[in-house]
Amino acid sequence: MKIISDGEILEFEEIRGDKAIFYNDWGIEFEFPDYLDIDEIGEIYDETNRSEDSLTPSLF
Q1: pLDDT, tens only, 13-37
Q2: With contact defined as beta carbons under 8 Å apart, do 2 and 10 qualify?
């Protein structure tokens, strides 16, 4: 499962103890308490309705 949190795509990896572990595209690990709902972390990323351009920040 992938979610968008603070404009960044995070991919769910595992539950470790009482934490839900997610990774971003650069391999940085993010931990969230496992009692949080997905809506409290971000929104579910739907690859069929999004394009790469809409998620990539641009300076131009």
Answers
A1: 999 999 999 999 999 999 999 889 8
A2: yes
